[in-house]
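Check the record.
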Amino acid sequence: MMLINGEPNCQISAVDRGLAYGDGFFTTAKVVQGKVEFWRDHVERLMLSSKKFAIELPSLLTLFSEVQTAIAEVELGCLKILITRGEGGRGYSGVGCDNPTRIITVTPWPAQYQQWQTEGISLTSCQYQLGLNPQLAGYKTLNRLDQVLIKQELESLDVDDVIVCDVNGHVVESSAANVFWFEQGTLYTPDLSQAGVNGVMRKQVLRCAQQLEIPVNIVKFKLEQLAQVDSMFITNALMGLVPIKQFQQRVLTDFSLVQRLQQEIKDD
């Protein structure tokens, strides 16, 4: 299913600024039995991005109606809502681009995520490093060339995912997910003020940890310090919480705290 500006369509203008400049943003959500998980948080993400980049969203009623049309008969799937500044002429200026483009797509949910959630995955470090950009850090923009190159590197390795650092060697995220780890009962996750995406599921984990009175530290952390962790997991809105069973040469067997969070995190 694909809707462009509310109409079934799979073609976009060649002069759309999303194509020309990556001028836009998106969110990706899990759909279960015709319902978007954590819908309010995805809407909040879109609204924050809309304000940051001065790209007007449609009314929430229009957006919700179009989403419901797209997912009405979906038992298990992936919803993507993508917003661009719309059509524009030559040059970077967005002046006069008053009709943003909205694209809604629904695709199958990756079947391997179910196995990943229960059995865990393997990680290693990535050679590619993320640049620092505090103006865009945290946002899920259409500028994803970093992730394309990271995925190319991952596909050459015999692991499920990679840990990505910034140019200063600080841990940021995996190829498409946020990173967490436990050490002596405290939950840690990287500071994303300079690079990375502040994911919807990351927000759920931090909220749940607070409710469970689990100490949380948001830190700048070097890759070599991960050698001391008790357990690790990665998260995004589609895969949920996925434990790490092996990081580089180290085998991790304690999934207990991750499993506790998996059980507690539910959409209202």
